[in-house]
Each structure stands twice: as C-alpha cells, then as structure tokens.
From TrEMBL:
Organism for this UniProt entry: Bradyrhizobium niftali
Pfam families tied to this protein: HTH_22 (PF13309), PAS_6 (PF08348)
InterPro entries, A to Z: DauR-like, DauR-like_HTH, YheO
Domain annotation Transcriptional regulator DauR-like HTH: ranges: 156-215
Name of protein: Transcriptional regulator
Domain (YheO-like) ranges: 21-129
Lineage per the UniProt record: Bacteria, Pseudomonadati, Pseudomonadota, Alphaproteobacteria, Hyphomicrobiales
Amino acid sequence: MSRSRSSVPIKTAAERKLLFDQLQQIAQGLGETFAPFCEVVLHDLTDPRNAIVAIHNNLSGRKVGQGATELGLARIADPDYPQVIANYANSFADGRQAKSTSIGIKGADGAYVAALCLNVDLTLFQGLQSAIGQFVSVDAQNGPRESLTPVGADAIRAHIDRFAARRATTPRALTTEDRRSLLRELRDAGCMQVRRSSDIIAAHLGVSRATVYADAR
C-alpha cells in the first residue's frame, strides 16, 4: 500500500516537492519543444489514484488527478521494472496511433516515485509520409529515358579518376604538371569535344575553368 502524502515526514515531503517542481519544469520544456505533436505527462507514482500531476499538449483527453496507467502500476509493484521504455506502440482513446516513451524516476530507496511520459500523435506524420512518398515517386517504365548530365560527362570523370589512381592520388590533389598531362590525354581521347567539357573537368578537379584553359595550353 502506498503511503499517503500526510504520512510522509516533513523532510521527505519537502524533498518530494522539490523533485516534482523540477520534473514539472522538464515536462513543460519538453511540451513546448515538441508542441503540438507530443503530449507530455508527469505521473506521481506515490499517489496512484491521483497520479497525473501535469499534462502538456493534451492529446489523450485525460485530466490532472486521474489515476496511474497499467505501466505506472507495474512500476509501483516492481522496483526492477525497466526504467526507460522507448518508442513503444500506443493509441489514444479515439483510435489515433501513437508512439510513446516512458521514463521512470526513482527515489533514494530505489522505489519508483514518478514517471515522465511522452506520447507522439503519429496521424499527421503518417499523412506527411504518404504525401512525400507520392511526391518522390517516378514512373520508371513509361517515362522517356533522359539524363540531365551532359552526354560524355561520366566518361570524362572516369578518365580523370583513372588518371589520378595511376598516380596514387585524388583528382583534386593533382599537381599542375599532372593536370597538364591529364588534359593532353583528354584532348587526345576526344573528351574536349564534349559540350561544356571545361566546366565538367574544372568541377571534378576542384579548380576554376580559367585554370583548365591555362593548363590545356
């Protein structure tokens, strides 16, 4: 049987008030941060019949002073019950799906005295997920085959990568002399005839287009 508040010694009562005052601040801060999607509820597990001390972003329709949930009663009965239960499936009274996290708070004697619970309404997020899924979907079978990358750009980049690999370095770490040799190879391979080849080469090498023109002389 839980002790009534009047039976708690003065010192313990003062400590309890301090603890719950701090937990109230945490609950308020979390509620304001995750509004309006997340309900934050502070439970007093020393008084299971009137467990709800505070409720922010009320999504469940519960009220301050209502009793403890099954999870709260389980913690009261068993100090070894898990202290943190995160991201478990839940639902509100009207059937809306929720994701919940419950954090048990213990006193100095190891018994549970409070719980801080977060209940996220998944309804809006599920709607957004559906809308985003529709937006990013593409018709890969019926659409025309097209690339926004200039024809031959991949071949130029691959040639540059092979050139750098032969020198055990990266394209952006090539020396001036290496770049000049590279550009001769690209010219001999016909890569410089590709539209906007200078832009492609400059971007892959991490240099300006003017530098590419200078090295190509």
